[in-house]
Amino acid sequence: METNLFIICTTAFAAVFVLLSLMAVAMRLLIMVYPAELRAAHDPALVAAITTTMDVTHPGTTVTKIKEVR
What we know:
This protein has about 70 residues and is mainly alpha-helical. Helices cover about 65% and strands about 0% of the residues.
């Protein structure tokens, strides 16, 4: 009976691994077909979010320049 449990667990692990791998490949293909638009640093919602976050984490801070690092 213990061998059956081991086989069931191994099969389930392999099935999950295969399914997640297929989903990763599908996501990669979708990203290649439909690339995301690059957002400009002057997007008002982005500036407000960064300014609010910096004010909460470091009170009294003024955001003067936003630079995206890739």
